[in-house]
């Protein structure tokens, strides 16, 4: 009973969080200088045409009024109109959702698995040569900027050797995967170092925990203690990082997608900020927050369910 | 612990060396995506030393009207510009201009290099003695892409819309039209307010494409702008905003046997490096606007060509005449003389652009090639500054962040201006903010560019040098009533020699008064696969796609 209550509590907390993010984004976007209409119509557009179009979009109303109109429409399912493309924002978002989803899921998978492998290998023989190599790897990895790394990968694997496509998303699942390999590699090389460092440290720490000594004194073999006790206890705290990881991958999609010409949400996001496409900015922020919050919530729920300490 | 530390250090050193080696084989790139709206080339990037191994396989989709066996020819063009609407009057941004010419036919048709105007939808025309009445005779059998006949009514509808619609972004050139009427199904008569020399050319402009009255009225403006019924060589197959526009041949296009290529894909790729990668691997056939630094290396390849076709772009330094220090012509002259424009041009464009002498682009009619440019004379500059009491004063350069080229120009300027005695700072802002500050006159100096959509100089002068024409002389707030007067006279003057004289005077005055400081005339830096024949972009940003062929 208590568990369900806790879960529900977390669920209701989402709404004020999203609302807060929404209003802050709206105010921020409208407070920076820059006129989206001028940027869209081109430099030679006369002022009166710009003014007419601004009026059409209600851009001359006070900011709070605009926000309430936006909110009211949102509740009805209308996410607003893109000033740049004159199409409903929801359409744009749905069109571009899939590539970013591929990036996110692939990025997660290809970060988590190497992390597990490397941390386990490393902590198995602490300070052994394997462990040393792994530690060098993640220290160097922490320092490499992912943007530069992406370009180097494209240079080596696409341009020089032609093994993989340099850009785009492809037209069917097989092509999607081959086009996403380099972007996934980029995300993985950015995330794995941090995660490995954390997990490895936690694993090492747990080696000296009470339950380990208890287990040993009971006569349990080392590997059993490791897989059955140490690992689950170390992974759980790391799981909380999942929300952060998801947010990080989404954030880096803003840089990665333009480089690889992937028509996803990240590219749309950066374009809309530079072009001051207000409703698209709102929508993107909402989508990214929703994904992050959902991931965090899922992890919290999962933890609550798994953790036998809470009844 | 010592052993670990040592091992760590060794490994770290090894890793560092490895990283440096990788870097040495291809210099690292250093910048963020570019956000421009027009052709001019931008940044530097990772150089490749060996040609790519692959070339993309030809497309094998089935043509919608053809038999199962036929393969479609496809050409893929990567452009930094975005397509925001498919309604020809609703935008004057470069990405849209490129596309309108493919979707809509006009009364006249320019040759691929833009130098001549030939019959288009109109097979012949007449003008009255005083050039105020123009009559165009349409060809037989014209149809829109939905099969419905194209008549004089549609022409009238299109031009009235162009002139009067409140959403018509570039209606200026069409205001001199007093009346336009359909005399019969195939005849259209324009009556102008007075003789207007640019009129004939403006009939061929990018937004003067003929749209179907029945479709616009039935579908409504919004729907039409997304999936229009068209009159040009290509029609819309699919439009994914902010991603790509796919066009296919229009079976009802008036020109028999054209277009030659079945499908055209405009793919939006804002990142310069990415476009260069894409053409290097053969993923695309044309890369619009490659960085200056990449031209040599791409051109040297057997499978890529960078012809550097002429554009109407001009790179200039804008000076705010509202600023008290800059309102003094001596200070402006000093700035102009302090800049080593030849050096800036060679450095930034690797010698591929021509140094500018006149405030008008060199591919416009009546551009004056003999006008002596302001010389590089730092000593004279210092003298002028002393005289004007501006020695040692602060000067702020405002630039749009995200472009290595813009940064380079501003840094060179900073260097040269500091050498004559200014205290120069550079302010970086993003595009939206830059425009706001520019239009509001809240800046001192900024290097920028502009281009003209037609070879006729009237609009160029009104945009860049006229203080009372709505653009405040490209927001330099320069006002010289004589130039305004000359511009009005020149637009009505039909004798070419007299017109030339008028524009010569305009350029001379603007140069003497240092309205802006012209830097250079950059050509287009489009890269084409050598598998393509007959494709170029003319100075009015129009592709000759219908004439182009691909042999794979």
Summed up:
Chain A is mostly helical. Chain A contains 13 helices and no strands. With 552 residues, chain B is α+β, with helices and mostly antiparallel strands.
Task: Give structural notes.
The complex is a heterodimer of chains A (311) and B (552). Chain A contains 13 helices and no strands. In chain A, 38% of the residues are buried. By secondary structure, chain A is mainly alpha-helical. Chain B has 552 residues and is α+β, with helices and mostly antiparallel strands. Chain B contains 17 helices and 21 strands. Chain B has helices spanning 2-24, 94-103, 152-164, 199-202, 213-219, 221-226, 272-280, 292-299, 329-338, 341-349, 378-388, 404-419, 431-439, 457-464, 472-475, 481-492, 496-512, and strands spanning 74-79, 108-110, 117-119, 122-127, 133-138, 177-184, 187-192, 234-240, 244-249, 263-268, 286-287, 304-305, 314-319, 354-355, 394-400, 423-429, 445-450, 516-521, 527-529, 532-533, 549-550. Chain B has a seven-stranded mixed sheet, sandwiched between helices. In chain B, strands 4-5-7-6 form a four-stranded antiparallel sheet, with helices on one face. Residues 22-69 of chain B have low confidence and may be disordered. Chains A and B meet through helix 2, helix 3, helix 5, helix 6 and helix 7 of A and helix 1, helix 6, helix 7 and helix 13 of B.
Q: What class would the helix/strand composition of chain B place it in? A: alpha+beta
**If helices are DSSP runs of H or I spanning 4 or more residues, what is the number of helices of chain A?**
13
For the sheet with most strands of chain A, the description reads: none
* Low-confidence segments of chain B: 22-69
Helix content of chain A: over 70%
C-alpha Rg of chain A (nearest Å): 24 Å
The SSE order of chain A reads HHHHHHHHHHHHH
Rg of chain B, Å, rounded? 26 Å
Quaternary organization? heterodimer
Q: How would the global form of chain B be characterised?
A: globular
Number of helices of chain B: 17
Beta-strand content bin of chain A: under 5%
**Strand numbers in spatial order across the main sheet of chain B:** 8-9-10-1-11-19-12
Quickly give the structural class of chain A: mainly alpha
Give the strand content of chain B: 15-25%
Question: Taking all residues together, what is the mean pLDDT of chain A?
Answer: 85
How many angstroms does the end-to-end distance of chain B come to? 63 Å
What is the straight-line distance between the termini of chain A?
Answer: 8 Å
Largest interface: A-B, 62 and 69 residues
């Amino acid at each position: 009973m208590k568990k369900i209550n806790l879960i529900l509590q977390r669920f209701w907390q989402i709404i004020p969080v999203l609302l807060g993010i929404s209003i802050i984004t709206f105010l921020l976007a409208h407070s920076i200088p820059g006129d989206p209409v001028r940027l869209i119509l081109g430099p030679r557009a006369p002022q009166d045409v710009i003014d007419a179009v601004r009026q059409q979009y209600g851009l001359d109303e006070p900011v709070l009024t605009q926000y309430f109109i936006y909110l009211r429409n949102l509740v009805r399912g209308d996410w607003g109109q893109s000033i740049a493309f004159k199409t409903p924002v929801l359409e744009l978002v749905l069109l571009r959702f899939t590539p970013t989803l591929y990036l996110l899921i692939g990025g997660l998978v290809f970060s988590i698995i190497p992390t597990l492998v490397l941390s386990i290998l490393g902590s198995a023989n602490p300070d052994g040569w394997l462990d040393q190599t792994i530690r060098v790897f993640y220290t160097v990895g922490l320092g490499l900027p992912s943007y530069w790394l992406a370009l180097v990968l494209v240079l080596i694997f696409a341009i020089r050797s032609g093994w993989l496509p340099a850009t785009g998303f492809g037209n069917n699942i097989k092509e999607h995967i081959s086009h996403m390999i380099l972007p996934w590699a980029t995300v993985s090389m950015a995330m794995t170092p941090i995660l490995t460092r954390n997990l490895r440290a936690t694993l090492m720490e747990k080696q000296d925990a009470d339950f380990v000594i208890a287990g040993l004194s009971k006569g349990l073999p080392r590997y059993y203690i490791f897989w059955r006790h140490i690992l689950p206890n170390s992974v759980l705290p790391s799981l909380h990082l999942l929300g952060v990881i998801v947010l990080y991958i989404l954030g880096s999609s803003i840089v990665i997608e333009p480089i690889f010409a992937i028509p996803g949400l990240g590219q749309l996001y950066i374009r809309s900020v530079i072009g001051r496409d207000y409703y698209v900015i709102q929508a993107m922020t909402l989508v990214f927050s929703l994904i992050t919050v959902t991931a965090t919530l899922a992890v919290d729920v999962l933890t609550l369910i798994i953790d036998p300490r809470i009844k | 612990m010592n052993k670990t530390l040592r091992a760590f250090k060794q490994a770290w050193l090894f890793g560092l060396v490895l990283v440096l080696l990788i870097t040495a084989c291809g210099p690292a790139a250093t910048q963020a995506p570019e956000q421009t709206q027009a052709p001019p080339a931008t940044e530097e990037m990772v150089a490749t030393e060996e040609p790519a191994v692959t070339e993309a396989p030809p497309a094998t989709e089935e043509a919608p009207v053809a038999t199962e066996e036929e393969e479609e020819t496809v050409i893929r063009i990567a452009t930094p510009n975005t397509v925001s609407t498919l309604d020809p009057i609703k935008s004057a941004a470069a990405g849209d201009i490129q596309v309108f010419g493919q979707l809509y036919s006009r009364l006249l048709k320019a040759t691929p290099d833009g130098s001549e105007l030939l019959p288009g939808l109109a097979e012949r025309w007449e003008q009255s003695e005083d050039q105020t009445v123009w009559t165009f005779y349409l060809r037989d059998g014209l149809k829109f892409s939905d099969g419905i006949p194209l008549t004089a009514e549609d022409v009238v509808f299109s031009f009235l819309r162009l002139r009067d619609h409140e959403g018509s972004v570039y209606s200026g050139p069409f205001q001199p039209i007093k009346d336009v009427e359909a005399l019969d199904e195939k005849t259209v008569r324009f009556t102008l307010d007075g003789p207007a020399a640019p009129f004939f050319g403006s009939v061929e402009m990018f937004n003067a494409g003929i749209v179907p009255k029945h479709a616009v009225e039935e579908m409504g403006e919004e729907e039409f702008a997304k999936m229009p019924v068209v009159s040009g060589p290509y029609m819309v197959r699919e439009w994914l905003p902010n991603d790509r526009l796919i066009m296919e041949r229009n079976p009802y296009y008036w020109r028999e046997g054209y277009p030659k290529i079945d499908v055209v894909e405009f793919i939006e790729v804002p990142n310069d490096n990415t476009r260069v990668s894409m053409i290097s691997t053969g993923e695309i056939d044309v890369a619009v606007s490659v960085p200056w630094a990449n031209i040599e290396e791409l051109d040297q390849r057997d499978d890529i060509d960078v012809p550097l076709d002429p554009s109407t772009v001009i790179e200039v330094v804008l000076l705010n005449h509202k600023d008290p220090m800059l309102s003094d012509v001596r200070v402006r002259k000093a700035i102009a003389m302090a800049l080593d424009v030849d050096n800036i041009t060679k450095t930034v464009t690797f010698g591929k652009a021509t140094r500018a002498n006149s405030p008008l682009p060199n591919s416009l009619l009546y551009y004056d090639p003999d006008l002596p440019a302001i010389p590089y004379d730092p000593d004279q500059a210092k003298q002028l500054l002393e005289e004007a009491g501006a020695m040692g004063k602060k000067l702020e350069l405002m630039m749009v962040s995200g472009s290595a080229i813009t940064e380079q120009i501003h840094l060179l300027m900073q260097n040269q201006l500091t050498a004559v005695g200014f205290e120069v700072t550079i302010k970086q802002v993003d595009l939206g903010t830059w425009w706001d500050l520019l239009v509001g006159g809240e800046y001192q100096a900024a290097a920028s560019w502009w281009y003209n959509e037609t070879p006729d100089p009237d609009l160029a002068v009104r945009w860049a040098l006229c203080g009372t024409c709505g653009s405040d002389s490209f927001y330099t707030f320069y006002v010289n009533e004589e130039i305004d007067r000359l511009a009005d006279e020149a637009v009505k003057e039909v004798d070419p020699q007299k017109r030339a004289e008028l524009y010569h005077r305009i350029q001379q005055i603007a140069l003497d008064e240092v309205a802006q400081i012209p830097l250079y005339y950059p050509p287009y830096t489009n890269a084409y696969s050598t598998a393509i024949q007959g494709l170029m972009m003319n100075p009015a940003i129009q592709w000759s796609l219908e004439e182009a062929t691909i042999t794979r």
